Amino acid sequence: RMCDILHKRQLKIHLRLDPLFNLTGVKKEQERLLQIIHGLTRKVVREKKSSQGSMLRDDLDDNDENDIGEKRRLAFLDLMIETANNGANISDEEIKEEVDTIMFEGHDTTAAGSSFVLCLLGIHQHVQEQVYAELRQIFGDSKRKATFGDTLEMKYLERVIFETLRMFPPVPMIARKINEDVQLASKNYTIPAGTTVVIGTYKIHRREDLYPHPETFNPDNFLGAYPNRHYYSYIPFSAGPRSCVGRKYAMLKLKVLLSTVLRHYRVVSNLTEKDFKLQADIILKRTDGFQIQLE
């Protein structure tokens, strides 16, 4: 719902002005939703700090290793709290804001991404068979949960995810503020400094000069190297210094979630990609819902 409100403010000029927006019922709803979101984050931070207590930790302790002699990696929140406990000038509010960023960039986007993956696998059964074969090779008959090491072996599933995010990027457009005049190579135009430029990720990913048959779902688009493909031809997580900080977390989450579902169920869909009714809010979604069956 917060994404809907933000999208509405982008589309309606009178809602862009804070003095007018603050007089609306939408503003009150936004404040209520923010209290819920921030309340959850503050609760998580508070409980984590309480569980850790006031113990200080020496990050250089060589005995802090796992069973195979590797240095243990702290979770993001644990790392921030322990850094603050060890003397860094990080407030609880700053920790909360960083957690908010990670949760948003790795939650709504993965929810949309995983839904589109399952829809496409339900349509393209031969691709789903290859994913299942890969998972059988990794897990066999085991019912154990997926580990980080397992996700590194999910090469074909990774290509399926990449191709899905190409066709249906969770964030269909991104914006950048130009710091200096930019001369466009294609035409004799100059974008002046200070301009906000909107980049259509969805459109870039469907350019025929970048991807042969761009409307066709084909995981082999990400098989091997493509030296002639522009570095910024694939930007589901944006790119550059302002790219998504939750990219690795999102991919890990997608692999664990999808592998768990596909090890236990076959996905079936009676629709095709042409039947999808898309709505480009802040997060790309289907207005007709993600219609699949699990067998």
TrEMBL record:
<dbReference type="GO" id="GO:0016705">
    <property type="term" value="F:oxidoreductase activity, acting on paired donors, with incorporation or reduction of molecular oxygen"/>
</dbReference>
<protein>
    <recommendedName>
        <fullName>Cytochrome P450</fullName>
    </recommendedName>
</protein>
<keyword id="KW-0408">Iron</keyword>
<dbReference type="GO" id="GO:0020037">
    <property type="term" value="F:heme binding"/>
</dbReference>
<dbReference type="Pfam" id="PF00067">
    <property type="entry name" value="p450"/>
</dbReference>
<keyword id="KW-0560">Oxidoreductase</keyword>
<keyword id="KW-0503">Monooxygenase</keyword>
<dbReference type="InterPro" id="IPR001128">
    <property type="entry name" value="Cyt_P450"/>
</dbReference>
<dbReference type="InterPro" id="IPR036396">
    <property type="entry name" value="Cyt_P450_sf"/>
</dbReference>
<feature type="binding site" description="axial binding residue">
    <location>
        <position position="244"/>
    </location>
    <ligand>
        <name>heme</name>
    </ligand>
</feature>
<dbReference type="InterPro" id="IPR017972">
    <property type="entry name" value="Cyt_P450_CS"/>
</dbReference>
<keyword id="KW-0349">Heme</keyword>
<comment type="similarity">
    <text>Belongs to the cytochrome P450 family.</text>
</comment>
<dbReference type="GO" id="GO:0004497">
    <property type="term" value="F:monooxygenase activity"/>
</dbReference>
<dbReference type="InterPro" id="IPR050196">
    <property type="entry name" value="Cytochrome_P450_Monoox"/>
</dbReference>
<dbReference type="GO" id="GO:0005506">
    <property type="term" value="F:iron ion binding"/>
</dbReference>
<dbReference type="InterPro" id="IPR002401">
    <property type="entry name" value="Cyt_P450_E_grp-I"/>
</dbReference>
<keyword id="KW-0479">Metal-binding</keyword>
